[in-house]
Amino acid sequence: MDLVLWTLSMTLALVVGLFVLLVSGVIYTVFTEPVLPPGIQGPGKLRLIYGLQVAIGTLGNIAQNLGLGPQVTVVRYIHTKVLRRKSKKETGLIIQDVQFDGVPVRVYQQRQALAEERCGILFFHGGGWTFGSIDEYDHLCQYIAKETDSTVVSVEYRLAPEHRYPTQLEDCLNATLHFLKTAGDYGVDRTRIVVCGDSAGGNLAAAVCLRVTSMKESLDLPSLRAQVLIYPALQMVDFNLPSYQQNQYVPLLFRTRMVFFYLQYLNGDMSLAEDVLSGRHLPVELKTNYRRWLKPDLIPAKFQVGGHKPNLALMHDDDVYNLVKPSLEPTFAPLLASDAAIGKLPPAYILTCEFDVLRDDGLLFKKRLEDNGVPVSWYHVEDGFHGIISCFDNGYLTFSSGRQAVDDIVSFLVDI
């Protein structure tokens, strides 16, 4: 009996010790690692969200080291089973989980029928092609469906590391093509279908637009009405743009973390990270060629405050280049599409945040679209950070700028 009590006591002491260690580590990381610049909204709340992010990642790492499963799997489980807030179903909506050409989707339809067909919105969630789900974006999609009086289709595309590029894109494309063909079954005008996504989902939305535009004539498809790109990730060429340098330590997306997500999507080879960060992954002549679209001088001067140190890497590794070459495909990096392809794209809505490493991707894509005659509506969140729209209605962790941004997106969708 004494041995049992001793074992239980030691086990409890170990658990308490690990908990204290975890909390101490999270507190230390939260107050030493991130940089919260003056002007960012809700720094205290943002530190709390980041601390939760760090704690979940740490738990995932511990579980992996104990042989309980990959870190990614554990983190996903905590997000979907432990932290996900159950959304209260809007009374005016019919919500169904179905499949579009084998791709799981969640369809949000209006209960009240109209004499005329509605707008249809395909939503591709963010999460670095590695995390995220239709469950985590359920509340946002319900809100968009209700406020725009539209039919929303949220796509559950497959994720890395189990699936690599172009699997995620193909899932989103197949769901889009299916919806374009069957829109009438959902009371949707097939000429009023929009693709929308945040972060990695913004990348997928832009890539789907490129694919649909290139194939619509051969498949007799209508054009997409618009693309809504919310702080999209659009290129893996240059991680030294002003926004990457200014915001590299600003949560919720660090510069190094963005490289991690790109490589997870591409091939999973994390040994390439330093070469990609330093610019040694591409030949100089290629980088020079892409500067016509990626040059910091193309970004408005007000976004270059604090100076910019250009990437001066003059050497590259052929083996690394061969491994990352698919990242130059326009369907991986829409910012690198040809002028001819860009000019055929539908009107765009682009949302950027001041304190986001991906800010300049959005600004540069905005310029490319406008230079090729594509109308662009732009909304910039002056005090925003990456991921802010996910905090548009989250109790204490709600950010007013997130709510304003979502409502601006809704206004755009209502008017198309």
Give a written overview of the molecule.
With 416 residues, the protein is of the alpha/beta class. The protein is 45% helix and 15% strand. It has 14 helices and 8 strands. The chain has helices spanning 2-32, 43-65, 71-83, 138-148, 167-182, 200-219, 242-246, 255-266, 273-278, 284-294, 318-324, 339-343, 359-371, 400-415; strands spanning 93-100, 103-110, 118-124, 151-155, 188-198, 226-230, 348-355, 376-385. It has an 8-stranded mixed beta sheet, with helices on both faces. Strand 5 (188-198), helix 6 and strand 6 form a beta-alpha-beta unit. Helix 1 (2-32) packs across helix 2 (43-65) and helix 2 crosses helix 3 (71-83). It is globular, with a radius of gyration of 22 Å. The termini are far apart. Residues 14-22 have low confidence and may be disordered.
According to DSSP, the number of beta strands is 8
Low-pLDDT segments, ≥5 res: 14-22
For the biggest β-sheet, the strand order reads 1-2-4-3-5-6-7-8
Q: What's the pLDDT, averaged over the residues?
A: 91
Give me the Rg, rounded.
22 Å
The secondary-structure element order is HHHEEEHEHEHEHHHHHHEHEH
The proportion of residues in beta strands is: 5-15%
State the distance separating the first and last CA atoms. 73 Å
Structural class: alpha/beta
Q: Summarize the biggest pleated sheet.
A: 8 strands, mixed
Number of helices: 14
What is the approximate shape? globular
Can you give the helix content as a percent range?
A: 40-55%
